[in-house]
Amino acid sequence: MIRLNDLKISYRIGSRVIDAVDGVSLTIPEGCIVGIAGESGSGKSTLMKAIYGDIQAPMYISRGSIDYGFNGSDGRPVTTANIRDEWFKTISYVPQSSMNSLNPVVRIGKQFTDFPGTDRDKKRVLDRATAFLGKLGLPPEVMTSYPHQLSGGMRQRVMIGLATFFQPGLIIADEPTTALDVVVQKEILMLLMELQEEMNNTILVVSHDMGVHFQVTHKMLIMYAGKVVEYGDTDSVFADPQHAYTKMLIDSLPTIGDDSMRGVIASTAGAGGDRAFGVGTGLVEVKPNHFVSLAKETAGVPA
Amino acid sequence: MTLILKTENLNKVYRRGGLMGGKSISALNEVNITVESDKPVVIAVVGESGSGKTTLAKTLLRLETPTSGRAIVYDTTVAGPGATPSKRDFLGLVQPIFQNPFEAFSRYRPVDTYLHETARRVAGLDEAQADRAVEEALRNVGLNYDEIRGKYTGQFSGGELQRISVARALIPQPKLIIADEPVSMIDASRRMIIINLFKRLRDEAGRSFVYITHDLATAYYISDYVAVMNKGQVVEFGPARAVMSNPSHAYTKLLLDSIPTTKSRWRPRVSRAG
């Protein structure tokens, strides 16, 4: 389990300090997919970077801490200080537009054997990787291909293959399917869910698409203006959203076949900018495993 | 009935490779669409990457010349044999809105200069008239000219900038606006601002739209007609509600089944004990 203790992450730009994540306290249990939603600038990518341990100037942890609660490949407890040693061992990261993150001049097979600390026996790694990619629906020829020879969907499968090959306990995926078409997106998301059920690891998925979240996640974390405004079991959050911002996110997109929605969705969505919704200081458990942060004076009502 | 849009056996073939043995790709393959209506309409063109929907948009915008076939917009042939309007007449009839507003405008020029240029060159207005036209167009998209004047792209959000793109397209009073993925670069929670703007411009200002998108949900929400494209062909075309509530082509069904909805799940999600 991962525990965030009053975590505050800031950026120092010249003499200015910007708090991108402002006092987040919550616990992420093991073995579940957690979806993170919120608009650009809400702090979700910063929080993911901090959990991944990629903390570099001008970004820094200005208050609080992260407890990882699991041991690294060498048996030591993982901490913010040593987490880098765990990258691509017990923790992996699928960055945004990751299908363009493969090294363009290195064949796919070599990208599997190139990890630091991997099995010395390259032949054995290649055989295992070929079999593994086969399970993800990729033909063996992929191993000898360069990234540009593959379609976007295939590259995305390769990226997910790279991220899961070492059976990491934690995977962080930032918008893993945004650049893909719906048909391919569904294949990739199904694959991700199957792999997670097999490995029973923790996956954090950042996405703009509430539909993707509903399909894939066990828990939802909603961010707004640097704070977590709602956190809970996905079914509970979608069935009974507590925060006005969460409601707006869920209601903001039309549904096919729902004629009552056709042509009448108000365009209040997002109007009013960054401070349109009230945000309280801490999360309160309103239902079992369902937390919300409500500001007293503006609770439930967009300003 | 007004003929709003008609394509007749529209084909576009791209050739790749050398003089001999090169490869041909049919980006548009016998595309036939006819939309006649008394009222302005939104025509959605949906499909995946490589389906030919952007090539169709470019052909209608005269950015690509069709290999064969014709396209007619409001009784004017705009592409293929007999396409006669001058560039200025054409841009007074059909206007584009592009996917990425940050790329549509230069970073080094104030955004409102583009609106002015359209007013002067395409609409043929003088300086004072242009100023008024820009102000009115911006008001139509819910923006205030005084807050836009002299500002650069970096000073706006994607949604604001896309509304400015819509305002620019409105200045020559075009009959048809072709919007290629106009909301894919905008935050999900703000997309409906642009979509509702199209709806209002159709209903109140009498503009028709060709709305190119891979997002079937917004297409269903706003469109009167929908064309589903796959591999250069229109596999299904008809009234939006009929096509999307009751698809007859297997590919349309596949597309609709692949949309992640918040109503029913592809795979059960067991809530883990927290």
How is this structure best summarized?
Chain A has 8 helices and 11 strands. Chain A has 303 residues and is of the alpha/beta class. Chain B has 274 residues and is α/β, with parallel strands linked by helices.
If you average the pLDDT of chain A, what whole number results? Answer: 86
- Unreliable segments of 5+ consecutive residues of chain B: none
**What is the CATH-assigned architecture of the largest domain in chain A?**
3-Layer(aba) Sandwich
Q: How many DSSP E strands of chain B?
A: 10
What is Rg of chain A? Answer: 20 Å
> What name goes with the CATH superfamily of chain B?
P-loop containing nucleotide triphosphate hydrolases
Number of helices of chain B: 11
Number of domains of chain B: 1
Strand order of the largest sheet of chain A: 5-6-7-3-8-9-11-10
The whole-number mean of residue pLDDT values of chain B reads 91
User: What's the tally of helices of chain A?
Assistant: 8
The CA-CA distance between the termini of chain A, in Å, is 36 Å
The CATH topology of the largest domain in chain A is given as Rossmann fold
N-to-C span of chain B: 61 Å
Principal-axes shape call of chain B: globular
Helix content of chain A: 25-40%
Description:
The complex is a heterodimer of chains A (303) and B (274). Chain A has 303 residues and is of the alpha/beta class. Chain A starts with a strand and ends in an 11-residue tail after the last strand. Helices cover 27% and strands 24% of the residues of chain A. In chain A, the strands form two sheets. Chain A has an eight-stranded mixed β-sheet, sandwiched between helices. Chain B is of the alpha/beta class. Chain B contains eleven helices and ten strands. Chain B has helices at 53-60, 87-93, 101-104, 111-122, 127-140, 145-148, 158-170, 191-205, 216-222, 240-245, 250-258; strands spanning 2-16, 23-37, 42-46, 68-73, 76-79, 94-97, 176-180, 208-213, 225-230, 233-239. In chain B, the strands form two sheets. In chain B, strands 6-7-8-3-9-10 form a six-stranded mixed β-sheet, sandwiched between helices. In chain B, strands 2-1-4-5 form a four-stranded antiparallel β-sheet, with helices on one face. In chain B, a hairpin with a 6-residue loop joins strand 1 (2-16) and strand 2 (23-37). At the A-B interface, helix 5, helix 6, helix 7 and helix 8 of A face helix 8, helix 9, helix 10 and helix 11 of B. Chain B: Keywords: ATP-binding, Nucleotide-binding, Transport.
